[in-house]
Amino acid sequence: MTDPAIRNPRVLVVDDRPENLLSIVTILEDLDADLVTASNGQEALELILDGDFAVVLLDAHMPEIDGFEVVHLMSGVQSTRKIPIIFISAIHKDERHVFEGYNLGAVDYLFKPIEPDILRGKVTVFLDLFRQREIIRQQAAELKRVNEEMERRVAERTHELSEAEKARRQSEDAMRSLFVHSPDLIVSLDFDGEVRFVNRPESLAQFSHLKVGDQFANAVQSSSRSRFLRGFRRAILGGDRSAISIAMENERWLQIRFSRIGGQNQEPVILVFATDVTEVRALQLQAMRNAHLVTVGILAASIAHEVNNPNNAIGFNANLLRNISRDAMPILHQVAREQGPFELGGIPFEEMDETVPRLIGDIEKNAQRIKEIVSNLKRMARNEGSGQRTAVNFQHVVDASCAILDNAIRKHSAQVAINLPDSLPLALGNQVQLEQVFINLILNALQALPTSGGEVRVYPAERSPSGRVGVVVEDNGCGMTREQLRLAMEPFYTTRQESGGTGLGLSICHKLLTDLDGDLEFSPRPHGGVRATVILPQYEPGLGAPDDVI
To answer: 102-126: per-residue pLDDT in tens?
Structure first.
């Protein structure tokens, strides 16, 4: 089998008689070559000038331009003079014509009728020669390419070595400057954690007294020391460039990065880079929270839209089923009287009068419930009029919030007791913003509850300042210390960082209430749990039209 990269050899057969062309092509068709035919000398010359042939089988006697004239013309062209020519003749059999053919450059002279085996044998020789020339040509081209590639690589490698040496000197100078002027604290530690080098200990107050020979871990705040030591050991064992964040004094955060360097002829050490990332961390958390809130709004609007369509179909079909059931029951009763007791869907027919209306009623009730939840989601997703203050009924706000939190309430197996009397004054606020506040407060209360016996209560505040109205959300959960309650509304403060808390929920609630001239207060319950009180201005007639009540 030939190399697929080698060109397939071509054989040109020239004869003015079609039957002769067919005969020669038939003899050669089983050879691994492309057979090309021409019926006269002019056509043969055009083909020869247009392509490369392994051998040309040329009829000596043809009208207009005979085979001898074709060979003569080929000998005058550099690209065709070396193409092997085999004359085939049925007329010019005398020695004079044979010698003339050889003198013109033909490699052989055959007489008709042609012996097939002889013709195939002679053509095969030239096909093999063509393939050998192709292999040699390709090898020469490949050798030239390899030599050029080697020369290029040598030149590139020489340039790389020169640039590497230049870069090494520049790197050494840059490293010296980095250690001296870096805003980060850079410390070199041996594998025992002892300081070998420190660049600017005064850059971070917590490490201002650090010096060579100290144990670096002792300068780390005790609550974060174990995390630092784990990262330090990972860097020793794995050599990976790991990073951790640890708490510092005054509620600041430090990012510690480890990098193992050295080895072989140089004693390995661990480089520690310490950066104050408090502000960066705060900005990242704020950005994450903002993105989350935007996503929640988009999802809420999308879900509300998508759920409405199938829910409308459920409600319509439930009403249709009720009508079908009403019309079918007399017929089924007649069947029962005539044929005796039977079952439908595994339910005895005698129970159908009670069961079917109850099942259809449950479908309609839950469809209506879905409709209410979707309506609440739509209101939360819309921001139009969010700054407008109107008369707000706390009962409606809390009911809407609990409807949205229904799954969370079921998940925590909790009781949510709402005790807001009809006599509770209306508040001056914003429905959507207050729903967001109560969703946060009730959800926080649910997450603080014990695994069993948990309860969240919502009731009016016992005492409210004049002209104000307050509502309390309290739980009997794990509770918070007074210090934690004092910090609860600070941005990014959370007691549930490990479970994904961002520390922004209560801060946002406080901001929303402040914008509404309201307030949010926290206090501990005597027997465990937290009490959160929402306070808003009381609605007074004249501040809003009666139909502004939500």
So the answer is: 777 778 888 888 888 888 888 898 8
Q: Report, in angstroms and rounded to the nearest whole number, the Rg of the chain calculated over CA atoms.
A: 48
Instruction: Tell me the whole-structure pTM to 2 decimals.
Output: 0.36
Q: Is the dihedral of CA 54, 58, 64, 70 positive or negative?
A: positive
- Residue 181 amino acid letter: H
What number of residues does the chain have? 550
pLDDT in tens, 263-301: 666 678 888 888 888 887 777 766 665 655 566 566 666
Tell me how far apart the alpha carbons of residues 432 and 411 are, in angstroms, rounded to a whole number.
25
Beta bridge partners of 348: 343
Q: At which residue do the structure tokens 């420190």 appear?
A: 198
Tokens read off for 157 = 């490698």
Nearest C-alpha neighbor of 38 from the set 60, 22, 16 = 16
Helix or strand run (H / E) with residue 191: none
User: Comparing C-alpha atoms, which of 401, 383, 406, 410 is closest to residue 293?
Assistant: 383
Place of tokens 């964040």: 245
Per DSSP, the residues of 75-110 read: HTSTTTTTS-EEEEESS--SHHHHHHHHHHT-SEEE
For 46, 85, 142, 492, 533, the CA distances from 520, given in Å and listed in that order, are 99, 106, 82, 17, 6
Spatial contact of 88 and 110, defined as CB atoms under 8 Å apart: yes
Q: How many helices (H) and strands (E) does the chain have?
A: 13, 19
C-alpha pair distances (Å), 492 with each of 111, 129, 274, 389, 481: 103, 84, 22, 28, 17
Return the closest-CA partner of residue 6 out of 129, 120, 147, 146.
129
Is 186 strand, coil or helix? strand
Could you tell me if 28 and 6 are in contact, meaning their C-beta atoms sit under 8 angstroms apart? no
Instruction: Tell me which residue of 46, 190, 25 sits closest to 119, measured CA to CA.
Output: 25
Ranges assigned E (strand) in 303-435:
343-344, 347-348, 390-392, 415-418, 427-429
For tokens 């010096």, the residue is 211
Largest CA distance in the chain: 138
DSSP-derived letter for residue 194 is B
Question: In this structure, what token pair is assigned to residue 348?
Answer: 């005895």
Question: CB of 84 within 8 A of CB of 52?
Answer: no
Say which amino acid occupies 54: A
State yes or no: cis peptide before 113, omega within 30 of 0: yes
In single-letter form, the type of residue at position 273 comes to F
> What one-character DSSP code corresponds to residue 7?
P
